[in-house]
Specification:
The chain has 168 residues and is of the alpha+beta class. It has one domain. It is 46% helix and 16% strand. A hairpin with a 3-residue loop joins β1 and β2. α1 packs across α2, α1 packs across α6 and α2 packs antiparallel against α6. The longest helix is centred in the first third of the chain and has 17 residues. It starts with 8 loop residues before the first helix and ends with a helix.
């Protein structure tokens, strides 16, 4: 999921459009990339920050609930499994191991109400934007939001490629 070149054209276009609009809403590409770098500097995961926020010089991302390290690690494990499968329509509930599937279901219940708000430090730079962890949730099908994955788990290089992508 974090290899931009292996995304479908539809996924590339979607990520490009959202990241371009996101950059416009926080004051520009450099401000968005600066936030991504600040998030990347938080170890082990920016998602596990105790105060539920990460700030750079020009932007800040906040969320409404503390995410514990075990949930972030589970998402990372899911993404690692997805990298090996390279399936473009990746359902995180397709785990054959019953115990791991139960952990994934618990994580989905925990993270569903989570909402992220990215806003510029200077309100004149833009209106900011919001996103959630999951793109879709149904009985046996849960898909991670590509924007969430891009912001928290992909490299800054992935974000740069998404911003530079040319839609045909």
């Amino acid at each position: 999921m974090c290899n931009f070149n292996k995304q479908t054209d539809e996924a590339k276009a979607l990520i490009h459009l959202f990241m371009t609009k996101a950059a416009e809403n926080v004051g520009g590409t450099n401000f968005l990339l600066e936030l991504r770098e600040a998030m990347k500097d938080k170890k082990p995961y920016a998602l596990s920050e105790k105060n539920s926020q990460v700030a750079s010089n020009h932007t800040i991302i906040k969320w409404n609930k503390v995410v514990f390290k075990d949930k972030a690690e589970l998402i990372q494990d899911i993404l690692d499994g997805h990298r090996r499968s390279e399936n473009p329509n990746f359902n995180i509930l397709s785990e054959p191991n019953a115990k791991k599937r139960k952990n994934i279901l618990n994580m989905v219940k925990t993270l569903t109400p989570l909402e992220f708000t990215v806003s510029p430090q200077n309100p004149n730079d833009g209106a900011g934007f919001n996103f959630k962890v999951f793109e879709s949730i149904s009985n046996d099908d849960v898909k991670l939001n590509p924007v969430f994955v891009t912001m928290f788990f992909c490299s800054t290089e992935f974000t740069k490629k998404a911003l530079k992508y040319k839609i045909d």
